[in-house]
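User: Some background: our group keeps a shared notebook of sequences we're curious about, and every so often someone picks one and asks for a predicted structure to add to the entry. Today it's my turn. The entry only has the sequence so far, pasted here. Could you supply the structure so I can complete it?
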Amino acid sequence: QVQVVESGGGLVQDGGSLRLSCVASGIFFSVNAMGWYRQAPGKQRELVATITRGGSTTYAGSVKGRFTISRDNAKNTVYLQMNSLKPEDTAVYYCNAALVLYIGGVRECWGQGTQVTVSS
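Assistant: Of course. Here's the predicted structure to add to the notebook entry:
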């Protein structure tokens, strides 16, 4: 059984900050790429940011310069520091992780999501 669990969402005012965390747990060899996605009401899920095991990052244009993704490989954890939040950042944020299994292969895991609401 492997899973990823997010935490850190909540309600914040326009211009505020939040930090999301996501930890992968269970029996696996290592974690490859990790990332954050979000889905606003009535919209498709979209990529926010990704980070490789080596630390290379990618960002959606809408969050570049405001959000920072990072990870702690020893803790199998990925973070998303969100600054200068805007109402349009309101969404359910999902963690994604590629877990390398001892039995071979890679399992892609999604978290249950954490709500981020930015009030104007």
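Suggested note for the entry: The mean pLDDT is 97. The longest strand covers residues 30-39.
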